[in-house]
């Protein structure tokens, strides 16, 4: 398929940013990648590898690494923002300090900021002056960087308030192994992508305790109900949670050894303290921060989120993981279909 050759800078040289840079390079775009560690950028440019994040993967030589934010952004119209939630504001401020030309931002991170309770798109809109942001697009869905870097079949979704912008990003990334759908529901796509990390942590804890597939299936299913309850209360469409950014991302994150949130939960379930787990992971575990934010959102919107609350107690109140999971399984009886009915009713109110 013929496509317009775009100039794109990926901000963030972690596993996901690097994997997406590989997709863009495979599609014939001019691709730059910025990282804050000069030694890592030198490795990308001279050895064409990023061994810390994607071992045994050779990068296309057309990907050029930059340690200078100003140089990385010169002449660029599209920025792919691939940094952890906690670094987004700092990185955007660095961008503003050295770049005064308008850009489209495609954010690919998954999280919610504690205390402000902002979704990532809201953080970006707050930090970037209106004249510097032409469009804002979210890319999300079931996608492990390790598999994308091997050209394994992957399907994601993109969302924006401006669907023309979403379609431009769809064309930017789409190829024979990386399929891209569009979805107008920005809130649902962001909430689904962020909250699935909470359920993945809980699933990992359950596995670490040795509770098996039955318990994990229950956590995933009931976890989806929690995500949908909160998401629809915040204005999302319930249909989004039955799609790629909902159940799709939830399944892959709760069941794969590639999932850092599942791995972190698994270690916690085996008795390792949170601080030790986070120190040894080597990469950001977004679900920890998001658990705090979702717990606060549940209180704000008066939404029942028992899995999120139980995980919050384990992470921040030192509650025993086994006791928390056992308490979840022995909660008061309820009717399963009430959840679906309530979610649909909330959507009709909106």
Write up what this structure looks like:
- With 350 residues, the protein is α/β, with parallel strands linked by helices.
- It folds into two domains: 7-184, Rossmann fold (3-Layer(aba) Sandwich); 187-349, Orthogonal Bundle (N-(1-d-carboxylethyl)-l-norvaline Dehydrogenase, domain 2), CATH 1.10.1040.10.
- It has 16 helices and eight strands.
- The protein starts with 6 loop residues before the first strand and ends with a helix.
- The model has no long low-confidence stretch (mean pLDDT 93).
Write the layout of secondary structure elements.
Blueprint: E1 7-11, H1 15-26, E2 30-34, H2 38-46, E3 64-66, H3 69-73, E4 78-81, H4 88-98, E5 103-107, H5 120-127, E6 133-140, H6 145-148, E7 154-160, H7 163-173, E8 178-182, H8 186-208, H9 212-233, H10 244-255, H11 260-269, H12 274-281, H13 286-301, H14 306-316, H15 321-329, H16 336-349
Parallel strand pairs: 1-2, 1-4, 2-3, 4-5, 5-6, 7-8
Antiparallel strand pairs: 6-7
Helix pairs in contact: 4-5, 8-9, 8-10, 8-11, 8-13, 9-10, 9-16, 11-12, 13-14, 14-15
Short description:
The protein contains 16 helices and 8 strands. Helix 8 runs antiparallel to helix 9 (212-233), helix 8 (186-208) packs parallel to helix 11 (260-269) and helix 14 (306-316) packs antiparallel against helix 15 (321-329).
């Amino acid at each position: 398929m013929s496509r317009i050759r775009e100039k794109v800078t990926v901000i963030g040289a972690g596993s996901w940013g690097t994997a997406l840079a590989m997709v863009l390079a495979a599609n014939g775009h001019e691709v730059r990648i910025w990282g804050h560690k000069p030694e890592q950028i030198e490795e990308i440019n001279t050895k064409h590898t990023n061994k810390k994040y994607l071992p045994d993967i050779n990068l296309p030589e057309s990907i050029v690494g930059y340690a200078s934010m100003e140089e990385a952004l010169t002449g660029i119209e599209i920025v792919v923002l691939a940094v952890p939630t906690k670094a987004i504001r700092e990185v955007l401020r660095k961008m503003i300090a050295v770049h005064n030309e308008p850009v489209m931002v495609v954010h690919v991170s998954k999280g919610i900021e504690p205390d402000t309770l902002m979704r990532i798109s809201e953080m970006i809109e707050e930090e970037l002056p209106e004249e510097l942001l032409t469009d804002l697009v979210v890319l999300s869905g079931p996608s492990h960087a390790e598999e994308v870097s091997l050209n394994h079949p992957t399907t994601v979704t993109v969302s924006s308030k401006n669907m023309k912008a979403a379609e431009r990003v769809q064309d930017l990334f789409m190829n024979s192994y990386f399929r891209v759908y569009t979805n107008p529901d920005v809130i649902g796509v962001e909430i689904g992508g962020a909250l699935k990390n909470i359920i993945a942590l809980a699933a990992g804890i359950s596995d670490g305790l040795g509770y098996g597939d039955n318990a994990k299936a229950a956590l995933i299913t009931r976890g989806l109900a929690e995500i949908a309850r909160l998401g629809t209360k915040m204005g999302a469409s319930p249909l989004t949670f039955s799609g790629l950014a909902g159940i799709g991302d939830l399944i892959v994150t709760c069941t794969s050894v590639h999932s850092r949130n599942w791995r972190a939960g698994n270690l916690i379930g085996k008795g390792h303290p949170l601080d030790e787990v986070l120190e040894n992971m080597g990469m950001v575990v977004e679900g920890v921060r998001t658990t705090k934010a979702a717990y606060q959102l549940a209180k704000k919107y008066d939404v029942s989120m028992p899995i999120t609350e139980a995980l919050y107690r384990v992470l921040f109140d030192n509650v025993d993981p086994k006791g928390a999971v056992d308490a979840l399984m022995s909660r008061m009886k309820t009717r399963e279909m009430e959840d679906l009915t309530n979610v649909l009713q909330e959507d009709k109110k909106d």
